[in-house]
Amino acid sequence: MLNGTAQDLLVKLRSWVEGAVLMLPNLAAAVLTLVGFWILARILSGLTARVLRRATPYEEINRLLTNLVWTAVMATGLFVSLGILQLDKTVTSLVTGAGILTLIAGLAFQDLASNFIAGILLQLRHPFRTGHLVKTTEFYGTVEHINLRATVLRTLTGQLVYVPNKDVFQSPLQNFSAYGHRRVDVSVGVSYGDDLEKAQRVAMQAVDDVPGRDRERPVELFYEGFGDSSINFTLRFWIPFENREPDYLAARSEAVKRIKRAFDAEGVTIPFPIRTLDFSTVGGRRLSEEWRP
User: Fold this and answer.
1) Backbone phi, then psi, for 207, in 5-degree steps?
2) Buried b (16+ CB within 10 A) or exposed e, 129-140
3) Does some domain include residue 289?
4) Residues 257-261: contacts with CB within 8 Å, 24+ apart?
5) Is residue 276 helix, strand or coil?
6) In a domain, 165, yes or no
7) pLDDT one-digit tens code per residue, 194-218
8) Which one of 175, 206, 231 terminates a domain?
9) pLDDT at 91 over 70
């Protein structure tokens, strides 16, 4: 009984050895193929990295695409090597498993994938750059950096806000730095008894020398309508602007001070709000008449 078992074991070992010997050429070919694809992957990924560095300044996208090229070439080499070893069923199982895993991962990480793709598109389209002053969704601040998950803003009060790239990509975006200039609007009201032409002339002359004003663009003033106690207008002028919100606030503040000072000197009135209280039941009657015995 023992001899028969030993003999069967020897037969199996012999068959395995013979199979391994017969497999050696294919195994060597598979190993060489995999090594060749590894060399090809390094060459192509290096070439991709050099081309992308010239095409785009975004390191994260460059690194991502370079890794994708390397992974794709190595995956192809692995499948070819398994095919040489006649492991077709293994290749089919790997492909099927990879597809199932991709589907599961896509469903489980749908938001993450959306932010990832939106981050790539934002960096390719570059509607803003690091340091730009932007407003998106309800957040307003300077762009600190953009990664493949979120856009990081530093608000004017100093907080860091991580806005998902998907929200930035799908929402309206205001970029205050891209144009290089910004318009300053100052709303003012003058009394109904004032000369509007005089008020316009005094206001425009007052802001003509505001520090930093763009001299190539004229000061503009437009009357807007009749308010409760004043005739309202908006005065507009432009300043060079890049990324500093204090420059805009300082120009607007200086314009307000100059207009007030000029109006006081020229006798132009900025009226207080006026309210009339009517206590009568009918309306329009004097209070003394309403309570007359």
Assistant:
1) -100, 0
2) eeebbbebeebb
3) no
4) 258/206, 258/207, 258/209, 258/210, 259/186, 259/188, 259/203, 259/206, 259/207, 259/235, 261/206
5) coil
6) yes
7) 999 999 999 999 999 899 899 999 9
8) 175
9) no
